[in-house]
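== Sequence entry ==
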Amino acid sequence: MATIAHEYLTAQETADLLRISARHLRTLTKSGKVPSIKVAERSYRYPKAELLESLKPQRGAES
């Protein structure tokens, strides 16, 4: 059986990757605009593969 390893980023790592502030990331997280997993009362982790996929240009998108 194959095991798929998932890499999760912290909020600061995600904010750095997206080139936004940690505060703006919290806003996007609360509104559901960024994929995240709640791991504690006020702590989230962000799936790196999904974030990178969302950064790819969409086919047919206008410039």
In short: Residues 8-52 form one domain. The helical segments are 11-18, 22-30, 48-55. The chain has a mean pLDDT of 88.
